[in-house]
Write a structure and sequence with these properties.
The chain is α/β, with parallel strands linked by helices and about 550 residues long. The protein folds into 3 domains: about 5-50 and about 175-285, Rossmann fold (3-Layer(aba) Sandwich), CATH 3.40.50; about 50-160, no CATH class; about 315-540, pyruvate-formate lyase- activating enzyme (Alpha-Beta Horseshoe). The chain has 23 helices and 17 strands. It has a 7-stranded mixed beta sheet, with helices on both faces. β3, α11 (about 205-220) and β4 form a beta-alpha-beta unit. α4 (about 80-85) crosses α6 and α21 (about 470-480) packs parallel to α23. The structure holds iron/sulfur cluster (SF4). Iron/sulfur cluster binds next to α15. Iron/sulfur cluster (SF4) binds near residues 328, 335, 370 and 398.
Length: about 550
């Protein structure tokens, strides 16, 4: 008989549904190793599924047609007008064809439809916002970190300070997540479960997560709520000063979650590290994380996941290392929040991948390591060759000197078909300033060699980096044009000053009390045409923004 779960691990909306997010399957398998029964629930996927039921899509279809009929575009669709124009041909289809088209495209055609579907859901479930409704997309890059998608429906603009969070938790008519959770509450809760663990990766999940915590506490006052994830880790110092955030949340796990969660669940509270909790009205501060030995981690468990429901099929995420082996880029906070680079041995990777391949019929592995350096690329290649299975894989990397043609060819021969490169700039001056540890000559060589080895190169570019002059930016454009034959796709984003990064600390920015939970800091607005220039190249090269 299946054991009653002690904890339900939940991944709240709003996020994309490309793949299952790795944090919960990894925590789940670790707890199972120590006989702690648990259950994972991808509430984000569930949310999207609810939005794309036939009944809801019927209403959505009528709503889209109304917009099409009105020559005067709805004021609440203004900011999504671009999206509407891109998808308007769908509305010309008969509903059944529209429905089938959408379902065949994995139930939501693309990002554009997704945003409109969200806006429709949001407008049908809430009264109009007084303060923040319909923030213009043009304002997003500076103010909302990693949040260009879904910002209006995730209510992330309310997640920048605890007062706004509280406001939305107290006003059900302003917060559509209440209505959503009420309609599906039995799907979310789990009988006698005494703990709920919510993983918050980005600001888009903050309001949905706090709303759920409040509802769980109201219905089951004795359950304990645990929050973890990158958002908690980034803001630990601020959370530690803010008792109001502990109203419905008993523990905030800072950094790595495995050991902390185990200790909370086994009542080992006194020896706990990297956890914030309220005791006698005071917040107990976190100590250094108790790091897990990566080779002790069992392969992630996806048994609770409906893997066919994700956009990318037959693919699973996997992490072979934590931290970053380079750890010097001045705009990045990752290496500061997780300062110890650790990696799994080839034997552990072999054991894990062998399990994933056999248990879940995986054909493609998406490595989510922060950076696959030479050693990682070679180790993974060895493992794939020992597995003697046709497996393809991809990951993130940095264009650095020791990624020679031989290294890249070996990776390619062993299934690597796609690398995402954090290129950032095509100016040596800027690369030096942000401590990228490379230069344009090296970058060109690596891109060319990877391309000739048969790997798709996706480059990620940042613009309006502090101190980036027009000359620097033009070097970036020239670089991209010069190497266009080697670049398979690109993405670009406006520079955001990351809280906790070396650059942030150097700039001595005093966080504004009104936005104490901000992670990406606005810099002075610059009037440049960088974005338009990159957009033009993007249309030529292709890729994702
Ligand atoms: S940007 Fe990437 S390579 Fe640079 S320090 Fe951060 S994680 Fe490491």
């Amino acid at each position: 008989m299946k054991k009653q779960p002690v904890i339900k691990l939940i991944f709240p909306p709003l996020w994309d549904i490309d793949l299952p997010y790795l944090s919960l399957p990894q925590l789940s398998s670790y707890l199972l190793k120590y006989n702690i029964a648990n259950n994972c629930f991808d509430l984000n996927l569930f949310f999207w599924k609810q939005l794309s039921t036939r009944k809801n899509l019927e209403k959505f279809y009528v709503w889209l047609q109304e917009i099409a009929i009105n020559s005067e575009i709805h004021t609440d669709v203004d900011i999504n007008l671009k999206n509407y124009i891109l998808v308007k041909d769908y509305v010309k289809l008969e509903f059944d064809v529209f429905f089938i088209t959408i379902m065949n495209e994995n139930h939501i055609v693309n990002e554009k439809i997704r945003e409109l579907l969200l806006l429709f859901w949001f407008n049908s479930n809430t009264k109009k916002y007084q303060r923040f409704h319909n923030v213009s997309l043009d304002d997003i890059p500076l103010y909302f970190y990693h949040d260009r998608y879904y910002f209006n429906s995730s209510l992330s603009k309310y997640a920048q300070n605890s007062k706004d969070i509280e406001f939305l938790l107290n006003d059900k008519s302003e917060n559509p997540y209440y209505k959503f959770y009420e309609s599906v509450f039995d799907n979310i809760t789990d009988g006698e479960c005494s703990f709920y663990g919510l993983s918050i990766t980005g600001i888009n999940q903050v309001i949905p997560a706090f709303t759920l915590a409040k509802m769980l506490k109201e219905k089951y006052p004795n359950v304990k709520i645990i929050f973890g994830g990158a958002w908690v880790t980034q803001l630990a110092a601020k959370i530690a000063k803010n008792p109001s955030l502990f109203k419905d949340v008993d523990y905030f796990v800072v950094g790595e979650g495995e050991k902390a969660l185990y200790k909370i669940l086994t009542g080992n509270i006194e020896v706990i590290s990297n956890v914030l909790m309220l005791k006698d009205g005071k917040i107990m501060n976190s100590k250094a994380p108790d790091y897990v030995d990566l080779d002790d981690l069992p392969p992630p468990s996806f048994i609770d996941y409906d893997l066919n429901s994700y956009d990318i099929k037959n693919t699973l995420p996997y992490q072979s290392s934590r931290g970053c082996s380079w750890g010097k880029c001045t705009y990045c906070s990752y290496h500061i929040l997780d300062p110890f680079y650790r990696k799994k041995t080839k034997e552990s990777i072999y054991r894990d991948l062998d399990t994933l391949i056999h248990k879940y019929s995986t054909e493609y592995i998406c490595f989510v390591d922060s950076e696959l350096n030479k050693e990682r690329l070679l180790s993974i290649s060895d493992v794939i060759s020992y597995l003697k299975r046709k497996i393809s894989w991809r990951g993130f990397s940095k264009l650095e000197k020791d990624l020679t043609f031989d290294v890249l060819s070996k990776a390619s021969e062993n299934g690597c078909d796609f690398l995402i490169w954090g290129m950032e700039s095509g100016s040596d001056n800027i690369l030096y300033k942000i401590r990228k540890g490379t230069n344009i000559k090296i970058m060109e060589n690596v891109l060319r060699d990877a391309h000739h080895a048969g790997i798709h190169n996706r480059v990620c570019v940042m613009y309006e980096i502090p101190e980036e002059s027009d000359t620097d930016f033009n070097h970036t454009i020239d670089f991209l044009k010069r190497n266009i034959n080697y670049i398979g796709s690109m993405s670009f984003s406006q520079f955001t000053l990351e809280f906790n990064s070396v650059m942030f600390n150097k700039m001595n920015i005093i966080p504004d009390n009104e936005n104490e939970l901000l992670i990406g800091y606005p810099l002075e607005k610059r009037e440049t045409s960088y974005r338009e220039k990159l957009e033009r190249l993007f249309l030529q090269i292709g890729g994702f923004i």
